[in-house]
Amino acid sequence: MDNMEYPWAFLLFTICFNLFFLNFSPILARYILPKRKVYFNRQNQTVSFSWSVNNAEKNEHSHSTFPFEDIEAFYSKANHSQGHGYIAHKDYENHRGAFSEIRVKDNPQNPNYCKYTWERIVRFMDVTKPLVDSPEIEPFRHLDPVTHDFDKQNNRPEKYWRLMNYKQMKQIEEELDDDIYRFNFDGAITNPKRWANKEITKPWEKWPIDESLNKPDETPYWKRLMKTLARQIIAGF
């Protein structure tokens, strides 16, 4: 080992790789590469594909559009490969191209996370219920009439998630991830009275904001910035 040289070239390659793919590849993907998106319209109850699909009607953006009820989800795992969740038109033979992989945040190889992602989509499209109470939706809740009425009737804190400390949000996320990992989705479909969980509609009551975690971070900004940059360059996260 004493006669071996340190692989500086590999270290330099790793740093350049992290810098490019962590910081520049999202820019390329957003502004240069062609955009392929699938989006769900809660108000119109439609699903749209940004690419060409056979025998499809077009929406105001010239995207292929179908009624939500014509779309289904499934999980597929080929031999010696990782599984993934997908959505497709129920009559795919006549609507070639109406097919896309479901973007799963956590672990797409685990069917539970794919099923949970589809369940969130189905729940989002249910106009008889308010929007799911989650951080990414909170700033837009007032735009949906059903959600606005629900929040007003239940005195929901307007900035509940935005006033919560990030550490507490991570704790809640880990708790929910553990529930998803262990949840019996198949049992909940066949026997919901036994297996299905009651929806959490008032998270501000289940998880009150922990003020002890809301202490201001007195670390100088430049130190926090340098720590984040160093972690991204060296470790890649």
Present the secondary structure layout.
Blueprint: H1 8-31, E1 38-41, E2 46-49, E3 57-58, E4 64-67, E5 71-76, E6 84-89, E7 99-101, H2 111-124, H3 145-153, H4 166-182, H5 185-190, H6 192-195, H7 203-206, H8 221-234
Antiparallel strand pairs: 1-2, 2-4, 3-4, 5-6, 6-7
Describe this structure in words.
Helix content is 39%, strand content 12%. It is built from 8 helices and 7 strands. The protein has helices spanning 8-31, 111-124, 145-153, 166-182, 185-190, 192-195, 203-206, 221-234; strands at residues 38-41, 46-49, 57-58, 64-67, 71-76, 84-89, 99-101. A hairpin with a 4-residue loop joins strand 1 and strand 2.
Note the run of SSEs as H and E: HEEEEEEEHHHHHHH
Low-confidence stretches: none
Structural class comes to alpha+beta
Strand order of the largest sheet: 1-2-4-3
Shape: globular
Rg on CA atoms, Å: 22 Å
Head-to-tail CA distance between termini? 30 Å
Largest sheet: 4 strands, antiparallel
Number of helices: 8
The count of β-strands is 7
| Beta content | 5-15%
Helix content: 25-40%
Mean pLDDT across every amino acid position: 85
